[in-house]
Predict the structure.
Amino acid sequence: MDRRGFLQVGAASLLVAPALALAEPTAAEAWPTGCITMLPKAPVRRVAWTVDDGSSTQALYRYVDLLNSHPELRMTFFVLSSASGWRKVAPELAPMVKSGRVQIGNHTARHPNLQQLTNSQIQRELLDCHHFIQDHFGIDEKPIFRPPYGDIDSRVIKAAADVGFTAPILWWGTFASGAGVASGTVAGNAKQWLLNGRIVIDHANSMSTPRAFPYVMSLLKQRGLSTVTIKDAFGHL
Ligand SMILES: [Zn+2]
């Protein structure tokens, strides 16, 4: 995408959740080499629906319900381990993680801007979340991770890779979902961004996306798009 599109996506990625710090978008939103932003070309039409944070436990349960009622649906969750809801939904998600239709990724323990941390602090953030995922989902989620706010540079990439997180997953399309966002806004963003080959970012921080689920599901059907996890699309990175 061109630089303008890139910046728009970055700006729209702002996390809107009262429990979490807000960040202003900057020119640094142009992600550096080594970041994954789209799916490889494939003979089938597909999109990666990725869901971050999980600060709304109510919303997390709605994602579980959606997955239970649509066996064909595949998703990737980037877990923020300080969000208490993951503990509650982990037993319900675990079988889906085991079967491969749900992938779990690392979104740090406390949602900092990794560019503002030292190398060892970056690694601590990732490893604290990693241990949580090991304990509650029984898996090793490496090598994928998603930096909070999409804030990443070559130093962060190297520090993360040194502890096994070699695949930073960014995005090319957003639902711009969060607290205080109308479900109509989410639906409009889904219409704009749910396209073949995209990695789309969503947030389980409010009911704004769950209220738009029927529309999102109809859009996928209408566009002949199947959903894939990051591992479905890339294999073992
Ligand atoms: Zn986040």
Summary: The mean pLDDT is 89. The pocket of zinc ion is lined by residues 15, 52-53, 107, 111, 148 (CB under 6 Å).
